[in-house]
Design a protein that fits this description.
eight-stranded antiparallel beta sheet; 23 strands; 279 residues; binds fe (ii) ion; single chain
Length: 279
């Protein structure tokens, strides 16, 4: 029997800054770790004023998780210690697996004008935290889109969505977290449904317009069930739908390092200071 997921909790994105003074709206923190497991953080940059983002994110390390950057407007240039370099612009996705270590920079490729994008942190299970770093980049044209009968569309960045015939798969397939990452554009008043795994965390961040339950800047967390229904408000809705299998492991975070124990964090700091993080 179909069991629809009910909205369980609503989180508000909070204004903060990171990197070299980049103004962002963030959902993260110890208080939400368990609620959004396997996700750790979701940041949104949205500004037309270069002063809000020009400093970007100069070279910095990561260990123990994945960062996924998705641009809607404007462009960012990424460079990492592996020699990967690329500019991602409107609609493009960069999926970076830090594993045992990455040192990279993320800098705006523009001094002014609209910059709008998201960075999601997806945790790795203990068994994968020290695997080799990896980098994937997908241009907008490589990412499948499902047009909805009532208007609107679903862009499948990661995971799989049932289509009219064959399921539609995004370019990224994750391991243990089996993450689903969708960009939804729903027409005014339209209802959209999706089967979801019963054992997964399901999150919806509305970033434009509203649903009947969530307004712009809010993330909904949905309780158990095998189906999700979302109804757009009178002005339609743009939202990120995220789902993933919770890891249910201890989380120890120190800045850009996310491990399971304090000892592993100390090791990451030591490795970084001795130049062995990415060795
Ligand atoms: Fe980073």
């Amino acid at each position: 029997m179909t069991s629809y997921r009910q909205l369980q909790q609503v989180l508000d994105a909070r204004p903060t800054s990171d990197g070299d003074g980049v103004k962002i709206r963030r959902i993260a923190g110890r208080s939400v770790n368990e609620l959004i497991d396997p996700f750790l953080l979701l940041d949104e940059i949205h500004s037309e004023d270069g002063a809000d983002y020009i400093g970007g994110f100069p070279p910095h390390p990561h260990r123990g998780f994945e960062t996924i950057t998705y641009m809607l407007d404007g462009a960012m240039r990424h460079r990492d210690h592996l020699g990967n370099e690329g500019v991602i612009s409107a609609g493009d996705v960069q999926w970076m697996t830090a594993g045992r270590g990455v040192i990279h920079s993320e800098l705006p490729e523009q001094a002014d004008g609209l910059l709008h994008g998201f960075q999601l942190w997806l945790n790795l299970p203990a068994s994968e935290k020290m695997k080799s770093a990896a980098y994937q980049e997908y241009a907008n044209a490589q990412i499948p889109v499902i047009e909805l009968p009532q208007g609107g569309r679903v862009k499948v960045i990661a995971g799989e969505v049932p289509g009219d015939g064959e399921p539609v798969s995004g370019p990224v397939n994750t391991g243990a977290t089996r993450a689903l990452y969708l960009d939804l554009e729903l027409a005014a008043g339209s209802r959209w449904e999706l089967p979801v795994r019963e054992d997964q965390t399901v999150l919806l961040l509305v970033f434009q317009g509203a649903t009947t339950e969530l307004s712009e800047g809010q993330m909904g967390i949905y309780a158990d069930g095998d189906r999700l229904a979302v109804t757009a408000g009178a002005d339609g809705a743009r939202a990120l739908l995220l789902a993933g299998s919770p890891l249910r492991e201890p989380i120890r975070q120190y800045g850009p390092f996310v491990m399971n124990t304090v000892e592993e964090i100390e090791q990451a700091l030591k490795d970084y200071s001795e130049g062995r993080l990415v060795a």
